[in-house]
Amino acid sequence: MRGSSVVRKIGGPWLVAAAKSTIAALVAWWLSDRVIESPQSFLAPYTALFMIGVTVRASGTAALRQVGVVVAGVTVAAATVVTLPPVAALAASVAIGTAVGRLRIFAPDGMWVAITALLVLLYGSAMDETMVMFRIADVALGALVGVCVNALVLPPEFLSEARDLVVERSRGQAQLLRDLARAVKDGKHVQGELRTDLWALLKATGVTAALDRGKDSLRGNIRRTRWSRVGGERIYRPVAIALDRTLISLAAVVVGVEALSHKADACQEGLRADVADLLEAVADALDELGYDPARHHSPYAQMMNLRLPEAMRLNDVVRADLDGAGSEAEAISAIVVAVDTVNATLYGLGHDRTPAST
């Protein structure tokens, strides 16, 4: 199971990209070299490759931008060669091409305006209308082929990655809570190792950001229909927001556990065990977020009926015993408040989902 998952996540995308790039390059070269018989046929496959691997919408935008860059570059070259001596024309074409390339419509490929103008001048084809037209045609043809291959042959969609990230993030946050629970139960001194685990989660791509990327990848995508049947990115939006919010609260839990571990006088054994059980219960609740709402009728039923009530009960138990916690009351109180926020977030997610599942 795990081996096939690795092949799917790593091998699959590379194989698809390699196959699409090969198809696009061969088709673009054949059309340019054999059909329109261009003397610069290498430009077509070269351009086509830039259209592969990005979203369908992005490849269409890139195609228009590539054609615009070439047209601007040959125009700059022609204008300078007509009005200036060779050396001055070369310098002016680079300067003007660089300035024109900084226009927003050419970003991020603006540098190619100057490069195109420079190459046209160096090849001595700035005043050769046939060569100029072939250059524009080759780039346009390559861009068109690249867009078509990218859009029709397994077009890239990133909503699946966002869905997988939901599972990964819920498991990661749950594991962090279990590590915190173990530290509390063992009474060991926590210095900074748990902050490292927290930082790894914080610096990773946010789930909501991944959903936005996935949503954008479905624009103009023929694979959008399959996702539309189950609700698209909207069905994952609530759990994504919940995971991003709980991660912030987990930072407060980490600080609280660190403060608790630094206290010289140990609190009651029973209270420390209750705090550890509380963190374990919240971890179990977070694990339930890994169920795919597109495949499960009631994905959070077990969380709402079993895991979350237990976490809330234990939170009340720990809060009731705070008076006997001595100098550690402040640290435990911080943990309780943060867990309260996590529980409220998870309850809101499960409550909002319940009407749609009945």
Automatic annotation (TrEMBL):
Domain of life: Bacteria
Major location category of this protein: membrane
Places the protein is found: Membrane
Membrane topology according to the record: Multi-pass membrane protein
Record keywords: Membrane, Transmembrane, Transmembrane helix
Annotated transmembrane regions: 12-31, 43-60, 67-99, 105-124, 136-154
Keyword Transmembrane helix in record: yes
Keyword Transmembrane: yes
InterPro entries with a match to the protein in the record: Memb_transporter_dom
UniProt-recorded name of the protein: FUSC family protein
Provenance organism: Rhodococcus sovatensis
Coiled coil: none
Integral membrane bound transporter domain segment(s): 24-149
